[in-house]
Amino acid sequence: MMPWDNSLNKDLQDTVYRHVLYTLHLDDKNATKFSLSTPKQIESAYRRILDPSMNTDETFLGRRIKQDIERVFDSMMKILEKGGGMVQGLAQRNGHRFLKLGGWGGARYRMSDEELKNMTLQWVLPDVAAVVEEERKKNFLEVWNVLGQNNEQLEQA
Length: 157
Fold this sequence. Notes:
This protein is mostly helical. The chain is 62% helix and 0% strand. The longest helix has 31 residues, at 126-156. 8% of the residues are buried.
């Protein structure tokens, strides 16, 4: 049995990529920057994301790691109950829509903007979250200034 499965591996990869995108604009010497430019930087990025002090039960990745490890123990108990034999559906990897509808296919669920925002924020380390918030404020001020200038031009016309 393997608690670190493909789904958790994908969660980790997506988390690293998200951090790289959020810090792309930072100078290479900035300690907050995530980069995948060299093997050493790739190792550093993954180590930072997997740092146990950052991945508590409150973080998305921390919850997923804990969930997958606990699932192994549940699976072991089911196997023991069956006397070591195969347990139907235990390793089924068909996905949540298959289970809900009893077959393949089904409607895709589109997240609301609020759900998407909350999901994105769960995947960001604190130092990167500060960078993201700073960029949002900077972009807001730039847009505000442009709108203010346009309003002045409109009033003059």
